[in-house]
């Protein structure tokens, strides 16, 4: 609807660039708080994503014209905006505070401590009860808006979180400490504490020695008998 109003050309281009225009066209009841070309300096330096959040705040999800705003009950109201519907707003960032201050309509962020820094200038165009475009004097930027697009650094595990080596996994030092048997030794050989082997050769030697002793004794007996 702003294509035919050159004073809002930059604002209209931003709505298209951030694809907010598509969201506006998809809704049946809406109010756009437009800012003219000369008062958009507050958006300078912000990324496209941040500009989108700020501009979302300028799209109210209800129909308001000058008459309705001047008849606000209790002289003040909380307005829900497109920013709130995105799920990106924190706390009251997605709401606007509108106040009828003695006949002067003023807007501001609903975040606690924010001021009413934008005044209603007048109506730009409207389709009653469907869409209304109102001019406001300044861009409204909510307090606490995250203007950083840098992703958080990846978490580096602390030394205490590092996995410990398994006790069942042998280390190279354990392998190197096991000595191999000498190449010439037999694996089946008797140990030092084992019983002595009954060697046949050893047994024959013992029997031969005993026989010689008996023969000598018999010879001495016979020699003594003959001598007497």
TrEMBL record:
UniProt-listed Gene3D superfamilies: FAS1 domain (2.30.180.10)
Membrane spanning stretches: 206-227
Annotated region (Disordered), positions in chain: 144-204
Entry annotated with the keyword Transmembrane helix: yes
Keywords: Cell membrane, Glycoprotein, GPI-anchor, Lipoprotein, Membrane, Proteoglycan, Signal, Transmembrane, Transmembrane helix
Cellular localization per UniProt: Cell membrane
FAS1 domain segment(s): 1-140
InterPro entries: FAS1_dom_sf, FAS1_domain, Plant_FLA
Cellular component aspect of the GO annotation: plasma membrane; side of membrane
Membrane topology: Lipid-anchor; GPI-anchor
Function: May be a cell surface adhesion protein.
Entry's family note: Belongs to the fasciclin-like AGP family.
Record-given protein name: FAS1 domain-containing protein
Organism: Jatropha curcas
């Amino acid at each position: 609807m702003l294509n035919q109003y050159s004073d809002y050309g930059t604002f209209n281009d931003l709505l298209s660039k951030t694809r907010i225009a598509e969201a506006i066209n998809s809704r049946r009841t809406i109010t756009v708080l437009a800012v003219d070309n000369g008062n958009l300096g507050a958006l300078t330096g912000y990324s496209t994503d941040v500009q989108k959040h700020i501009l979302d705040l300028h799209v109210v999800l209800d129909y308001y014209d000058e008459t309705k705003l001047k008849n606000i009950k209790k002289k003040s109201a909380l307005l829900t905006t497109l920013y709130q519907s995105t799920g990106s707003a924190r706390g009251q960032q997605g709401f606007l505070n509108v106040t009828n201050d003695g006949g002067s309509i003023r807007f501001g962020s609903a975040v606690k401590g924010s001021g009413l820094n934008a005044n209603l200038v007048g109506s730009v165009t409207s389709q009653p009860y469907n869409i209304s475009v109102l001019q406001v004097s300044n861009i409204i930027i909510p307090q606490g808006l995250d203007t950083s697009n840098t992703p958080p650094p990846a978490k580096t595990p602390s030394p205490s979180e590092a996995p410990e080596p398994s006790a069942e996994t042998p280390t190279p030092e354990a392998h190197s400490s096991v000595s191999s048997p000498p190449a010439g030794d037999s694996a089946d050989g008797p140990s030092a504490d084992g019983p002595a082997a009954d060697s046949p050769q050893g047994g024959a030697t013992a029997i031969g020695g005993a026989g010689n002793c008996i023969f000598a004794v018999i010879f001495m007996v016979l020699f003594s008998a003959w001598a007497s």
